[in-house]
Design a protein that fits this description.
alpha+beta; 5-stranded antiparallel beta sheet; 34% helix
Length: 112
Amino acid sequence: MKTQKFCLALDLKDDAHLIEEYKVYHQKVWPEIIQSIKESGISVLEIYCLGNRMFMIIEANEEFSFDKKSAMDASNPKVQEWEDLMWKFQQALPWAKSGEKWMLMEKIYELK
């Protein structure tokens, strides 16, 4: 089965205490969130942090789409609770539209 790869970026609020608290939450992600991620077709999800900038790398099956994932998340109260909690730590990138959080990055190079 063919996989897709996506890279996304988002900032955390530039507060050392909040950044550490955010990292602690991600050491014990709620099981309902992990289940939701897997059910959407994502097989690998990694988040990296440098200062307050975060990068997310997703590998997903060929049926995965962000529209489908958004619809699933909107109908899942536990995911909504998690997203509301995470917004305490996160801040939109400067060029994000209202309501945008994680933003898809453009791939500009690949070593083959």
